[in-house]
């Protein structure tokens, strides 16, 4: 797990490329504290940079950027390839020779043997740049679940890329802001892919490869792996066995590491299950990291203890208080890279995991999206009826609705993203217009542009799963988990998003994969001999902090004078009266310096 950066630019001298790549690496140092490397090819005006967090093969053999023995290819790689040992055995039979125990070298060898077909063989979380000197091509490749970020700027015949958006500004590549990012942020509570805060800096789509032609300075973006065909398993016992076998396999291979590895335990279904399974499979004692609060409404210690009492591993439990939040707040804001209303929880748990000597941890992200764990899986059925109403009705009632129902005005736009914004959006278009002093039409044009999306009007659990996976999880949970954990030099692995696991689950009939009465019933029943009933037979909590209370008492956040404009000040007053959710206030706090 690392941070990567690079530049290909015929307008720059090699010395300039070297300086800029090093500047990018410097600002990314937190994500790769163990080593730094830069590769330059003067003939191609190309520079690759790398900051290393060593987890597999901790020796200097893992130094990056890495080249093959014949110097035909070079790679700078961020992530983990969980099936690298299987691929390595296959490649050895084909005559490949290896000088390290790294998964990085396996990617290079796989490319030399199979070309771009190698990308589809990889199982893991990854973002890498690979330079083919003979063919004068450079590939940017991102994993199929979009776990690892990869941003790029391709304009004026040059290509730049990095693991974080801040690297482009730090190197002086571009500082021009995307004027529309505040609109997207206030609507979503994050900045959705492919957009960023910088103009023309985009996120590479998950499961895609950008191929840059070094000779012509042109590029194309293609999907490198086709979705597997669904078998539609409809037998419940068979489905449970599939889930059980696939998750055990996923966790087993994600425990592979040469550095210390542990688990996040919140006390919910997903983290409890991963912790119990990892404890069964880990050859050494597992380290378990958890958080608790003085605020009893949010404290899950009793559920955490239920799991910890079943384990042999070492546990670390940390109290997080109001004063910890306030003292860490500047560091949390700095870690974000781009504005978000999430990630505070990830920042704290990552900080403590690193403090407890861990370099990698397993997390339960992905189960809710796959098995129907969110309220949206039931709420989406109402969308079917709301969508039968003429959109002009929702336009007409703009300004007449109380705060609680204002998001209905998103449905004035007949666009698939409007459905998700109704279910999970932050501020409705009318409020955004007042906060930013922008015409509502411009806001709608920005939010509902021509970005291609699959036509979806099912309004069932499959529809909700697609929205939660590709929008909420992709744009917020995964991005925030990555940037917050890497700010602490920690790797977070997500077994529920293993390609083989998600493919296996996708082949199960939705009629048994989802259950309206019991969220995640299939997952629970698949491990009913392992997971205590007290863990799943209770209201869903989530990994939640007492942020409503903490932000209400934070002197800067709740200071009405900090906010500009009548609308913003009124929102803060409502928050002080506990009539507004903290996420809206957190968004306003971050936006004020940019409008």
TrEMBL record:
<dbReference type="InterPro" id="IPR001962">
    <property type="entry name" value="Asn_synthase"/>
</dbReference>
<keyword id="KW-0315">Glutamine amidotransferase</keyword>
<dbReference type="Pfam" id="PF13537">
    <property type="entry name" value="GATase_7"/>
</dbReference>
<comment type="similarity">
    <text>Belongs to the asparagine synthetase family.</text>
</comment>
<keyword id="KW-0547">Nucleotide-binding</keyword>
<keyword id="KW-0436">Ligase</keyword>
<dbReference type="InterPro" id="IPR033738">
    <property type="entry name" value="AsnB_N"/>
</dbReference>
<dbReference type="InterPro" id="IPR051786">
    <property type="entry name" value="ASN_synthetase/amidase"/>
</dbReference>
<dbReference type="InterPro" id="IPR006426">
    <property type="entry name" value="Asn_synth_AEB"/>
</dbReference>
<dbReference type="Pfam" id="PF00733">
    <property type="entry name" value="Asn_synthase"/>
</dbReference>
<dbReference type="InterPro" id="IPR014729">
    <property type="entry name" value="Rossmann-like_a/b/a_fold"/>
</dbReference>
<comment type="pathway">
    <text>Amino-acid biosynthesis; L-asparagine biosynthesis; L-asparagine from L-aspartate (L-Gln route): step 1/1.</text>
</comment>
<dbReference type="InterPro" id="IPR017932">
    <property type="entry name" value="GATase_2_dom"/>
</dbReference>
<dbReference type="InterPro" id="IPR029055">
    <property type="entry name" value="Ntn_hydrolases_N"/>
</dbReference>
<protein>
    <recommendedName>
        <fullName>asparagine synthase (glutamine-hydrolyzing)</fullName>
        <ecNumber>6.3.5.4</ecNumber>
    </recommendedName>
</protein>
<keyword id="KW-0067">ATP-binding</keyword>
<feature type="domain" description="Glutamine amidotransferase type-2">
    <location>
        <begin position="2"/>
        <end position="215"/>
    </location>
</feature>
<dbReference type="GO" id="GO:0004066">
    <property type="term" value="F:asparagine synthase (glutamine-hydrolyzing) activity"/>
</dbReference>
């Amino acid at each position: 797990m690392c941070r990567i950066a690079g530049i290909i630019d015929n307008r720059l001298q090699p010395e300039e490329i070297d300086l800029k790549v090093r500047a990018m690496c410097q600002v990314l140092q937190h994500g790769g504290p163990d080593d730094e490397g830069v590769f330059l090819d003067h003939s191609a005006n190309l520079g690759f940079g790398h900051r290393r967090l060593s987890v597999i093969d901790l020796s200097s053999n893992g130094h990056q950027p890495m080249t093959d023995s014949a110097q035909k290819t070079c790679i700078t790689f961020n992530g983990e390839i969980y099936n690298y040992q299987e691929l390595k055995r296959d490649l050895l039979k084909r005559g490949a020779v290896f000088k390290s125990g790294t998964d990085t070298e396996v990617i290079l060898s796989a490319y030399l043997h199979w070309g771009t077909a190698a990308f589809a063989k990889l199982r893991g979380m990854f973002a890498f740049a690979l330079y083919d000197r003979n063919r004068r091509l450079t590939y940017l490749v991102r994993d199929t679940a979009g776990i690892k970020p990869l941003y790029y700027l391709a304009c004026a015949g040059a290509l730049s890329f990095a693991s974080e958006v801040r690297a482009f500004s730090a190197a002086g590549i571009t500082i021009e802001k995307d004027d529309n990012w505040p609109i997207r942020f206030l609507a979503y509570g994050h900045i959705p892919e492919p957009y960023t805060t910088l103009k023309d800096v985009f996120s590479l789509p998950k499961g895609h490869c950008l191929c840059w032609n070094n000779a012509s300075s042109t590029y194309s973006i293609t999907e490198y792996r086709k979705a597997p065909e669904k078998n539609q398993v409809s037998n419940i016992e068979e489905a449970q066995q599939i889930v059980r076998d696939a998750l055990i396999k996923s966790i087993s291979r994600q425990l592979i590491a040469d550095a210390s590895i542990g688990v996040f335990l919140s006390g919910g279904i997903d983290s409890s299950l991963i912790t119990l399974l990892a404890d069964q499979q880990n050859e050494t004692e597992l380290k378990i990291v958890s958080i608790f609060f003085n605020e009893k409404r949010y404290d899950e210690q009793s559920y955490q203890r239920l799991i910890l009492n079943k384990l042999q591993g070492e546990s670390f439990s940390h109290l997080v208080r109001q004063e910890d939040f306030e003292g860490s707040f500047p560091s949390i804001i700095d870690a974000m890279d781009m504005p978000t209303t999430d990630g505070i929880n990830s920042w704290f748990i990552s900080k403590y995991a690193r403090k407890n000597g861990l370099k990698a941890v397993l997390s339960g992200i992905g189960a809710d999206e796959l098995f129907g764990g969110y309220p949206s899986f039931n709420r989406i059925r109402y969308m079917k009826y709301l969508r039968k109403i003429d959109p002009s009705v929702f336009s007409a009632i703009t300004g007449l609705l109380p705060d609680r129902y204002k998001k209905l005005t998103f449905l004035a736009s007949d666009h698939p993203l409007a459905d998700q914004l109704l279910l999970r959006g932050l501020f409705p278009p009318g409020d955004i217009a007042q906060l930013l002093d922008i015409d509502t039409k411009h806001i709608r044009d920005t939010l509902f542009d021509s970005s291609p999306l699959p036509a979806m009007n099912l309004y069932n659990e499959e529809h909700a799963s697609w929205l939660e996976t590709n929008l909420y999880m992709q744009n917020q949970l995964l991005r925030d988990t990555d940037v917050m954990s890497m700010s602490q030099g920690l790797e977070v692995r997500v077994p529920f998003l293993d390609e083989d696991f998600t493919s296996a689950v996708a082949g199960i009939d939705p009629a048994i994969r989802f259950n309206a009465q019991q969220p995640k019933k299939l997952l629970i029943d698949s491990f009913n001999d392992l997971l205590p009933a007290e863990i799943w037979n209770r209201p869903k909590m989530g990994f939640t902090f007492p942020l409503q209370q903490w932000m209400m008492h934070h002197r800067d956040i709740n200071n009405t004078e900090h906010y500009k404009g009548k609308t913003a000040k009124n929102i803060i007053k409502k928050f002080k009266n506990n009539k507004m959710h903290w996420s809206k206030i957190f968004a306003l706090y971050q936006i004020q310096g940019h409008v």
